[in-house]
Amino acid sequence: MAAAGRALRAALPAGLWGRLAPLPGAPRRTAAHFSFQPDPAPSEYGQTQKMNLFQSITSALDNALAKDPTAVIFGEDVAFGGVFRCTVGLRDKYGKDRVFNTPLCEQGIVGFGIGIAVTGATAIAEIQFADYIFPAFDQIVNEAAKYRYRSGDLFNCGSLTIRAPWGCVGHGALYHSQSPEAFFAHCPGIKIVIPRSPLQAKGLLLSCIEDKNPCIFFEPKILYRAAVEQVPVEPYKIPLSQAEVLQTGNDVTMVAWGTQVHVIKEVAAMAQEKLGVSCEVIDLRTILPWDTDTVCKEECFLNLEAPIARVCGYDTPFPHIFEPFYIPDKWKCYDALRRMINY
After folding, report:
1. Cα separation of 33 and 327, whole Å?
2. 234 catalytic, yes or no?
3. What predicted TM-score, i.e. pTM, was given to this entire model?
4. Which of 34, 99, 207, 343 fits a disulfide with 237 by CB distance 3.0 to 4.6 angstroms?
5. What is the pLDDT of residues 119-159, one digit of tens each?
């Protein structure tokens, strides 16, 4: 790799290599920016089995296909199991008419899913990476989200669920690291869900599949193998649009979803230890429509002692070409929290 880097540098025009250097002061991350802590094994859903996140997705899809004979799964490479193995074994179990590949055309995948859902069948579409969902943006926001409204509720595509691997892993660069939920979060007519763990992923995905509105289900791909916990074997559902309070606190409310939930849990522990600050930690789970009642339970805006802070990645259009997209680690979150406390 070092030799390849030297060869590339020698081949570039004079001065270009310097422009590809890391941004001044930009951090270099050499390890995961969080530690996954599994939730306690549930007892209310029967037998559990140790699963990572992609296995819990497979289990949910297996349950859905077994329960609903109209359910079909389709997308790029899903027939052999998908690039992240989330559909492995399902084609052999349920047949090529229910688990099948599509052409490499995201607009076509979603448009096809809308058509299937309109007929009354259950459509589960996979976009291979969330970064490539944008060619289907028009189909999602102008067709799927508005189908019930435009027909006066005579027709709808509510049985459509769109799955997509989401977020940064650490080596995906600009086309395999994005978190595009904000683009869809302002569009009425669809639901957006992002789980934090295998246990949450299965229950939330089954709720999306059975919901009567089109849903986008983003799956944190860094957790596909890094997150392991006990997950019920039988189907179960976790209600949509219900946030979960993971930790109670009196001074600050911290809200996140997906991978970042694990980051703010660590930040909350740091804040208690270093600053003596008691943090409430909330996993939003459903981004649209979000659970305002849980987040604003204490009428927060009538008693706000510091401005609301949004902690996100660096606002640079193109970080160092060989670096992953920067995402807020626990130190950046902690620094934002410290500045709020000292406001």
Report:
1. 9
2. no
3. 0.87
4. 207
5. 999 999 999 999 999 999 999 999 999 999 999 999 999 99
